[in-house]
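note to self: dont lose this again. the chain is below, predicted strucutre after it. 153 aa total, dont forget to put it in the shared folder this time
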Amino acid sequence: MKRKTLPLILSTVFISPLAYSQGSSSEPSDIKVSLSDGLKISTNDGASSLRLGGRLQWDYTDDSTTVAGAKTNAQDLDVRRARMFLLLTHDVYELKAQFNIGEAGSGGSAEDLYLRYKGFGSLATLTLGKQNLPFGLVRLNSSNDMPMLERAA
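---
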């Protein structure tokens, strides 16, 4: 239950500073809203932003097999991946929370959950938390870009 409410709590806590980061003015011209790649709310100067998004992938099976003269039919519709994410940025800080809430065979898990500091410039980036490590081409590719449902063995 806590895993499902964590993104809601995080977004509630961080939306208020985002909305009022340019002062106490609440004019609509202070904030831009975009729906091009998920929901993105940002300040006009680009210093702060909130991005919500996700993906839903289905797996459908329709098998017809004959074993020892007996014909069997099997149909199954399953949620393959159901991910949602929250990405908050403010100046040199970035917070990302991505949860896999509906993968087949699991009760859900955190894919990415980290706080990143980019204040060192091109020298370094400091990241604390759980993150996807870029080792191997298979892990670098997004599941949105794979031609098949499964990754290579």
